[in-house]
Amino acid sequence: MEKNGIGTDASIPVHINNISERNYVQVNSGRRLVPTALGTTLIRGYQCIDADLCLPDIRSFIEQQITLIAKGKADHLQVIQHSLQQFMRKYSYFVKKIENMDTLFEAQFSPLADSGRLLSKCGKCGRYMKYISTQPMRMYCVTCEEVYYLPQNGSIKLYKEIICPLDGFELLLFSMVGPDAKSFPLCPCCYNSPPFEGIDKLFGALKLDDTGKVGKGAGMPCFLCPHPTCKQSMITQGVCACPECSGTLILDPVSAPKWRLLCNTCNCVVLLPHAAHRITTTDKKCPTCESTIIEVDFNKKATPLEDGATLHGGCILCDELLHSLVEMKHGKSFFM
Questions:
Q1: Is the dihedral of CA 131, 132, 133, 137 positive or negative?
Q2: Per-residue pLDDT tens for 234-245?
Q3: CA nearest 134: which of 152, 122, 120?
Q4: How far apart are CA 116 and CA 268, in angstroms?
Q5: What is the Cα–Cα distance from 221 to 248, expressed in whole angstroms?
Q6: Does domain 2-109 have CATH number 1.20.80.10?
Q7: In this structure, are residues 157 and 172 in contact, taking their beta carbons and an 8 Å threshold?
Q8: Which residues form a coiled coil (predicted)?
Q9: Is residue 102's pLDDT more than 90?
């Protein structure tokens, strides 16, 4: 406090006594102040909403202004007016974001924190995060004391222990309910804080607030991610433009043996050949329509290829064989 120019010899002991009585810290041997779980969670909450509230800069600035007033170098009323306006703006912003604080305290101190099960690794600390299945579904890292919201009204499981190349979090697989419902992988961190600038302008489905974070149930799954090399992103799994909207048809990697393409914006579904043992995207583009060339490995007993061949690559729009084997669902037409 002395280093940052905060408080006086008379007020410093009062501050220490206050945070001790409020159970934010405990005084250990050697007169060392050790933060409690309550104090740590409180600071984490401030950092999530307004990091300035955790720093000594604001208080230090006011103390400097008071000194200038005492020396006759600053106007008393102007300093008061400026300070009140500053704190009023911060208070109004804090009230709008108070739900972030509630979420942290609920995850730390309610029975939900004990009932959550360990599911995937946090990319920040490397420890396992807890999956809290009650609404709203979310992941909670006990070590970092951070909450990551998930898509709602579906099931969540670990996705092949694949690591997100952007932040080191393990990917999760979200599955909606129903025979034709979508399933898609997502990174908990990217879903809550899209790492690419302008992502809200590229995809209108994202609901970002003033801090760049998404609201509950609206984020950036892997099928909206423009990462150029990640094997789960829209760039590598995208096949062609959706005929119903401005979205992209993405290969559903977990739809085997009923392979399909899903639009990352609307509910358009394209059923691929069910006789396929394996279907993958390639890094090649169709010279005619620039769609991604897919590689289909048919089952030996049901292959439509001549001489019993099983491997076939082509564009689902321009290749006659593949185009004849696809079926449109929840859409009007499917053409180049």
A1: negative
A2: 999 999 999 888
A3: 152
A4: 34
A5: 13
A6: no
A7: yes
A8: none
A9: no
Alpha-carbon distance 303 to 297, whole Å?
9
R_g of the chain computed on alpha carbons:
27
Count of all residues that appear for the chain in the document:
336
Two tokens at 65? 């202004």
Rounded to whole angstroms, how far apart are CA atoms 148 and 139? 5
The secondary structure of 214-236 as a DSSP string is B-TT----GGG---SS-TTSHHH
Alpha carbon of 259 to those of 18, 25, 332: distances in Å? 62, 56, 20
Residue 129 φ then ψ, to 5°: -95, 155
How many beta carbons lie within 10 A of that of residue 176, not counting itself?
Answer: 14
For residues 43-72, one letter each, b for 16 or more C-beta atoms within 10 angstroms of the residue's C-beta and e for the rest, the string is bbbbbbbbeeeeeeeeebebbebeeebeee
Order of strands, sheet of 170-176, starting from the edge strand that comes earlier in the sequence? 154-163, 170-176, 183-186
Q: How confident is the model at residue 143 (pLDDT cuts 50, 70, 90)?
A: confident
Q: Where in the chain is the domain with CATH 1.10.460.10?
A: 2-109
- 82 pLDDT tier (thresholds 50, 70, 90): very high
Report the alpha-carbon distance of residue 95 to residue 123 in Å, rounded.
29
Separation of alpha carbons 195 and 166, rounded Å: 8
Mean pLDDT of the region 143-167: 90
DSSP state of 208: B
